[in-house]
Write a structure and sequence with these properties.
By secondary structure, the protein is α/β, with parallel strands linked by helices. It is built from 12 helices and 10 strands. It folds into 2 domains: 213 residues, HUPs (Rossmann fold), CATH 3.40.50.620; 75 residues, Uridine Diphospho-n-acetylenolpyruvylglucosamine Reductase, domain 3, CATH 3.30.465. The strands form 2 sheets. A 6-stranded mixed β-sheet has the order 3-2-1-4-6-5, with helices on both faces. It has a 4-stranded antiparallel β-sheet with strand order 7-10-9-8. Strand 1, helix 2 and strand 2 form a beta-alpha-beta unit. Helix 1 crosses helix 2 and helix 9 packs across helix 11.
Protein backbone atom coordinates (compact mmCIF):
# COMPACT_ATOMS: atom_id res chain seq x y z
CA UNK A 1 0.00 0.00 0.00
CA UNK A 2 1.14 3.52 -0.70
CA UNK A 3 0.97 6.42 1.72
CA UNK A 4 -2.30 8.04 2.75
CA UNK A 5 -3.45 11.01 0.63
CA UNK A 6 -2.43 13.36 3.45
CA UNK A 7 1.09 11.97 3.75
CA UNK A 8 1.43 11.97 -0.04
CA UNK A 9 0.33 15.63 -0.18
CA UNK A 10 2.95 16.72 2.36
CA UNK A 11 5.71 14.73 0.66
CA UNK A 12 4.76 16.17 -2.71
CA UNK A 13 4.85 19.71 -1.31
CA UNK A 14 8.34 19.14 0.08
CA UNK A 15 9.51 17.64 -3.19
CA UNK A 16 8.27 20.66 -5.16
CA UNK A 17 9.88 23.26 -2.92
CA UNK A 18 13.28 21.55 -3.09
CA UNK A 19 13.24 20.85 -6.80
CA UNK A 20 15.36 23.86 -7.69
CA UNK A 21 18.23 23.02 -5.33
CA UNK A 22 21.13 22.12 -7.57
CA UNK A 23 24.87 22.55 -7.89
CA UNK A 24 24.48 26.34 -7.90
CA UNK A 25 23.49 26.21 -4.24
CA UNK A 26 25.70 25.48 -1.28
CA UNK A 27 26.32 21.77 -0.76
CA UNK A 28 25.16 22.10 2.84
CA UNK A 29 22.13 20.36 4.29
CA UNK A 30 18.45 21.11 4.03
CA UNK A 31 17.18 21.74 7.56
CA UNK A 32 13.66 21.59 8.93
CA UNK A 33 12.72 23.81 11.86
CA UNK A 34 10.75 21.48 14.11
CA UNK A 35 8.97 22.60 17.27
CA UNK A 36 7.42 19.23 17.99
CA UNK A 37 4.00 20.50 16.92
CA UNK A 38 2.00 18.54 14.38
CA UNK A 39 2.75 20.78 11.40
CA UNK A 40 6.52 20.74 11.76
CA UNK A 41 6.55 17.03 12.67
CA UNK A 42 4.72 16.19 9.45
CA UNK A 43 7.19 18.37 7.55
CA UNK A 44 10.18 16.69 9.21
CA UNK A 45 8.86 13.23 8.40
CA UNK A 46 8.30 14.21 4.76
CA UNK A 47 11.81 15.65 4.45
CA UNK A 48 13.30 12.50 5.97
CA UNK A 49 11.39 10.37 3.46
CA UNK A 50 12.46 12.47 0.50
CA UNK A 51 16.09 12.36 1.63
CA UNK A 52 15.94 8.57 1.88
CA UNK A 53 14.83 8.09 -1.73
CA UNK A 54 17.65 7.60 -4.24
CA UNK A 55 18.14 10.61 -6.46
CA UNK A 56 15.62 12.81 -4.63
CA UNK A 57 17.91 15.00 -2.52
CA UNK A 58 21.64 14.96 -3.18
CA UNK A 59 22.55 16.54 0.17
CA UNK A 60 22.06 15.82 3.88
CA UNK A 61 18.69 16.48 5.51
CA UNK A 62 18.71 17.64 9.11
CA UNK A 63 16.64 19.43 11.71
CA UNK A 64 16.78 22.20 14.29
CA UNK A 65 14.53 22.47 17.30
CA UNK A 66 14.54 25.69 19.29
CA UNK A 67 14.11 25.52 23.05
CA UNK A 68 12.64 28.87 24.09
CA UNK A 69 12.77 27.93 27.77
CA UNK A 70 9.29 29.35 28.34
CA UNK A 71 7.73 26.27 29.95
CA UNK A 72 8.86 23.85 32.61
CA UNK A 73 10.46 20.78 31.07
CA UNK A 74 11.21 22.44 27.74
CA UNK A 75 14.82 21.20 27.72
CA UNK A 76 13.71 17.62 28.26
CA UNK A 77 11.06 17.87 25.52
CA UNK A 78 13.61 19.32 23.11
CA UNK A 79 16.02 16.45 23.83
CA UNK A 80 13.31 13.84 23.27
CA UNK A 81 12.25 15.54 20.04
CA UNK A 82 15.84 15.63 18.80
CA UNK A 83 16.12 11.89 19.45
CA UNK A 84 12.87 11.25 17.57
CA UNK A 85 14.03 13.33 14.60
CA UNK A 86 17.29 11.41 14.53
CA UNK A 87 15.20 8.25 14.53
CA UNK A 88 13.50 9.45 11.34
CA UNK A 89 16.93 9.48 9.69
CA UNK A 90 17.59 13.22 9.86
CA UNK A 91 21.21 14.19 10.40
CA UNK A 92 22.45 16.61 11.68
CA UNK A 93 19.89 17.34 14.39
CA UNK A 94 20.55 20.27 16.71
CA UNK A 95 18.84 21.79 19.74
CA UNK A 96 19.22 25.57 19.89
CA UNK A 97 18.54 27.06 23.31
CA UNK A 98 17.59 30.73 23.41
CA UNK A 99 16.63 33.43 25.88
CA UNK A 100 13.47 35.28 24.88
CA UNK A 101 13.53 39.01 25.47
CA UNK A 102 10.63 41.43 25.79
CA UNK A 103 10.97 43.76 22.79
CA UNK A 104 7.76 43.97 20.77
CA UNK A 105 5.74 41.76 23.14
CA UNK A 106 5.99 38.04 23.89
CA UNK A 107 5.03 36.74 20.44
CA UNK A 108 7.43 39.01 18.56
CA UNK A 109 10.24 38.44 21.07
CA UNK A 110 9.92 34.66 20.80
CA UNK A 111 9.84 34.87 17.02
CA UNK A 112 12.94 37.07 16.92
CA UNK A 113 14.85 34.72 19.23
CA UNK A 114 13.78 31.70 17.17
CA UNK A 115 14.86 33.14 13.82
CA UNK A 116 18.15 34.35 15.26
CA UNK A 117 18.85 30.80 16.43
CA UNK A 118 17.84 29.29 13.09
CA UNK A 119 20.03 31.79 11.25
CA UNK A 120 23.01 30.92 13.43
CA UNK A 121 22.66 27.18 12.88
CA UNK A 122 22.02 27.59 9.15
CA UNK A 123 25.07 29.82 8.73
CA UNK A 124 27.31 27.52 10.73
CA UNK A 125 26.23 24.42 8.80
CA UNK A 126 26.09 26.17 5.42
CA UNK A 127 22.46 25.13 4.98
CA UNK A 128 21.03 25.31 1.48
CA UNK A 129 17.50 25.83 2.82
CA UNK A 130 15.52 25.87 6.05
CA UNK A 131 11.97 24.52 5.86
CA UNK A 132 9.19 26.04 8.00
CA UNK A 133 5.89 24.32 8.77
CA UNK A 134 3.37 27.14 8.23
CA UNK A 135 0.12 25.98 6.64
CA UNK A 136 -2.68 27.60 4.65
CA UNK A 137 -4.52 28.22 7.93
CA UNK A 138 -1.49 30.02 9.36
CA UNK A 139 -1.47 32.18 6.24
CA UNK A 140 -5.14 33.08 6.72
CA UNK A 141 -4.47 34.05 10.34
CA UNK A 142 -1.53 36.20 9.27
CA UNK A 143 -3.69 38.07 6.75
CA UNK A 144 -6.34 38.81 9.39
CA UNK A 145 -3.70 40.03 11.84
CA UNK A 146 -2.28 42.30 9.13
CA UNK A 147 -5.75 43.63 8.40
CA UNK A 148 -6.23 44.46 12.09
CA UNK A 149 -2.96 46.42 12.12
CA UNK A 150 -4.08 48.51 9.14
CA UNK A 151 -0.54 48.55 7.77
CA UNK A 152 -1.13 48.20 4.06
CA UNK A 153 -0.95 45.66 1.26
CA UNK A 154 2.43 44.27 2.26
CA UNK A 155 1.12 43.09 5.63
CA UNK A 156 -1.94 41.59 3.91
CA UNK A 157 0.36 39.69 1.56
CA UNK A 158 1.07 37.24 4.36
CA UNK A 159 4.06 34.96 4.46
CA UNK A 160 6.02 34.30 1.25
CA UNK A 161 6.60 30.72 0.19
CA UNK A 162 10.31 31.52 -0.16
CA UNK A 163 12.44 34.25 1.38
CA UNK A 164 16.19 33.83 1.31
CA UNK A 165 17.08 30.46 2.76
CA UNK A 166 13.62 29.99 4.30
CA UNK A 167 10.97 27.96 2.50
CA UNK A 168 7.40 27.15 3.47
CA UNK A 169 6.31 24.04 1.58
CA UNK A 170 2.94 23.67 3.33
CA UNK A 171 1.34 27.06 2.62
CA UNK A 172 -0.97 25.43 0.08
CA UNK A 173 -2.15 22.70 2.47
CA UNK A 174 -4.82 22.98 5.13
CA UNK A 175 -3.88 22.37 8.74
CA UNK A 176 -6.20 19.35 8.96
CA UNK A 177 -4.36 17.64 6.09
CA UNK A 178 -0.95 18.29 7.61
CA UNK A 179 -2.00 17.13 11.06
CA UNK A 180 -3.45 13.93 9.66
CA UNK A 181 -0.05 13.29 8.08
CA UNK A 182 1.68 13.97 11.39
CA UNK A 183 -0.33 11.22 13.08
CA UNK A 184 1.28 8.72 10.72
CA UNK A 185 4.85 9.93 11.34
CA UNK A 186 5.56 7.80 14.41
CA UNK A 187 6.72 10.91 16.30
CA UNK A 188 4.82 11.99 19.39
CA UNK A 189 3.34 15.45 18.81
CA UNK A 190 3.53 18.15 21.49
CA UNK A 191 1.00 20.97 21.50
CA UNK A 192 2.40 24.25 22.83
CA UNK A 193 -0.12 25.58 25.38
CA UNK A 194 0.61 29.10 24.12
CA UNK A 195 -1.15 28.15 20.88
CA UNK A 196 -4.45 27.98 22.77
CA UNK A 197 -3.83 30.87 25.14
CA UNK A 198 -6.35 33.68 24.47
CA UNK A 199 -3.79 36.19 25.72
CA UNK A 200 -2.16 35.87 22.28
CA UNK A 201 -3.79 37.59 19.31
CA UNK A 202 -3.09 34.71 16.93
CA UNK A 203 -4.83 32.27 19.29
CA UNK A 204 -7.92 34.48 19.35
CA UNK A 205 -7.94 34.69 15.56
CA UNK A 206 -7.59 30.91 15.27
CA UNK A 207 -10.12 29.88 17.91
CA UNK A 208 -12.67 32.70 17.79
CA UNK A 209 -12.46 34.94 14.71
CA UNK A 210 -12.00 32.42 11.91
CA UNK A 211 -14.78 30.10 13.17
CA UNK A 212 -17.08 33.14 13.49
CA UNK A 213 -16.29 34.18 9.91
CA UNK A 214 -16.94 30.64 8.67
CA UNK A 215 -20.29 30.62 10.49
CA UNK A 216 -21.32 34.05 9.16
CA UNK A 217 -19.99 33.81 5.60
CA UNK A 218 -19.80 30.11 4.88
CA UNK A 219 -16.90 27.69 4.40
CA UNK A 220 -13.74 28.46 2.50
CA UNK A 221 -12.70 31.64 4.36
CA UNK A 222 -9.16 30.42 5.03
CA UNK A 223 -8.66 29.47 1.40
CA UNK A 224 -10.00 32.85 0.23
CA UNK A 225 -7.70 34.74 2.59
CA UNK A 226 -4.69 32.73 1.41
CA UNK A 227 -5.59 33.48 -2.23
CA UNK A 228 -5.89 37.16 -1.33
CA UNK A 229 -2.40 37.03 0.16
CA UNK A 230 -0.99 35.55 -3.04
CA UNK A 231 -2.61 38.23 -5.20
CA UNK A 232 -1.58 41.10 -2.94
CA UNK A 233 1.99 39.81 -2.70
CA UNK A 234 2.32 39.91 -6.49
CA UNK A 235 0.93 43.47 -6.52
CA UNK A 236 3.13 44.59 -3.62
CA UNK A 237 6.24 43.12 -5.24
CA UNK A 238 5.51 45.00 -8.47
CA UNK A 239 4.85 48.28 -6.67
CA UNK A 240 7.97 47.89 -4.51
CA UNK A 241 10.08 47.32 -7.63
CA UNK A 242 8.60 50.46 -9.24
CA UNK A 243 9.24 52.44 -6.06
CA UNK A 244 12.87 51.27 -5.90
CA UNK A 245 13.47 52.39 -9.49
CA UNK A 246 11.78 55.73 -8.82
CA UNK A 247 13.80 56.27 -5.65
CA UNK A 248 17.04 55.75 -7.54
CA UNK A 249 15.92 58.28 -10.17
CA UNK A 250 14.95 60.82 -7.49
CA UNK A 251 18.29 60.74 -5.64
CA UNK A 252 20.86 62.96 -7.39
CA UNK A 253 23.12 62.77 -4.34
CA UNK A 254 23.16 61.02 -0.95
CA UNK A 255 20.62 62.51 1.43
CA UNK A 256 18.75 64.43 -1.28
CA UNK A 257 15.52 63.55 -3.11
CA UNK A 258 14.21 65.47 -6.11
CA UNK A 259 10.70 66.69 -5.24
CA UNK A 260 9.71 67.01 -8.89
CA UNK A 261 10.46 63.36 -9.62
CA UNK A 262 8.59 62.24 -6.51
CA UNK A 263 5.56 64.46 -7.17
CA UNK A 264 4.97 62.86 -10.56
CA UNK A 265 4.59 59.39 -9.02
CA UNK A 266 1.23 57.86 -8.03
CA UNK A 267 0.70 58.24 -4.30
CA UNK A 268 1.05 54.51 -3.56
CA UNK A 269 4.40 54.31 -5.34
CA UNK A 270 5.65 57.62 -3.92
CA UNK A 271 4.89 56.63 -0.33
CA UNK A 272 6.63 53.30 -0.82
CA UNK A 273 9.68 55.13 -2.13
CA UNK A 274 9.65 57.55 0.80
CA UNK A 275 9.32 54.75 3.34
CA UNK A 276 12.27 52.96 1.75
CA UNK A 277 14.32 56.17 1.84
CA UNK A 278 13.51 56.71 5.53
CA UNK A 279 14.42 53.14 6.43
CA UNK A 280 17.68 53.45 4.50
CA UNK A 281 18.43 56.66 6.40
CA UNK A 282 18.06 54.87 9.72
CA UNK A 283 14.43 55.06 10.79
CA UNK A 284 13.60 51.87 12.72
CA UNK A 285 10.97 49.83 10.90
CA UNK A 286 9.26 48.95 14.19
CA UNK A 287 8.59 52.63 14.94
CA UNK A 288 8.11 54.15 11.50
CA UNK A 289 4.35 54.35 10.92
CA UNK A 290 2.16 55.13 7.93
CA UNK A 291 1.39 58.47 9.62
CA UNK A 292 5.10 59.38 9.63
CA UNK A 293 5.37 58.55 5.93
CA UNK A 294 2.25 60.60 5.21
CA UNK A 295 3.80 63.61 6.94
CA UNK A 296 6.92 63.30 4.78
CA UNK A 297 4.68 62.93 1.73
CA UNK A 298 3.07 66.26 2.61
CA UNK A 299 6.49 67.86 2.30
CA UNK A 300 6.37 66.73 -1.34
CA UNK A 301 2.73 67.44 -2.22
CA UNK A 302 1.65 70.14 0.23
CA UNK A 303 4.74 72.15 1.16
CA UNK A 304 4.15 75.81 2.03
CA UNK A 305 7.48 76.56 3.65
CA UNK A 306 6.89 74.50 6.78
CA UNK A 307 9.92 73.40 8.76
CA UNK A 308 11.55 69.99 9.05
CA UNK A 309 10.03 66.86 10.56
CA UNK A 310 11.58 64.93 13.42
CA UNK A 311 11.05 61.19 12.94
CA UNK A 312 11.87 57.95 14.82
CA UNK A 313 15.55 57.09 14.96
CA UNK A 314 16.57 60.73 15.35
CA UNK A 315 15.88 61.51 11.68
CA UNK A 316 15.38 65.10 10.60
CA UNK A 317 13.69 65.50 7.21
CA UNK A 318 13.22 68.91 5.62
CA UNK A 319 12.65 70.55 2.26
CA UNK A 320 13.87 73.50 0.30
CA UNK A 321 12.29 74.51 -3.00
CA UNK A 322 13.41 71.52 -5.06
CA UNK A 323 14.79 68.92 -2.70
CA UNK A 324 13.94 66.81 0.32
CA UNK A 325 16.90 66.53 2.67
CA UNK A 326 17.48 63.35 4.70
CA UNK A 327 20.49 62.14 6.65
CA UNK A 328 22.89 60.51 4.17
CA UNK A 329 24.06 57.94 6.68
CA UNK A 330 22.51 56.06 9.59
CA UNK A 331 22.61 57.92 12.92
CA UNK A 332 25.12 56.67 15.49
Amino acid sequence: MGPSPQVAAVRSAVRRVLRDLDSSHTAGPVLVACSGGADSVALAAALAFEASRPGRLARPAGAVTVDHGLQDGSASRAAHLAAALTGLGLDPVEVARVEVGTTGGPEAAARDARYAALDEVAERLGAAAVLLGHTLDDQAETVLLGLARGSGARSLAGMPATRGRYRRPLLGLERATVRAAARESGVAVWEDPHNADPAYARSRVRDDLLPALEKALGPGISQALARTADLLRADADALDAWAATALAEAAPAPGRLDVGVLARLPEGVRRRALRRALLDAGAPGTDLTAAHVAEVDRLVTGWHGQGPLHLPGGLRVGRDRAMLHLPDERPG
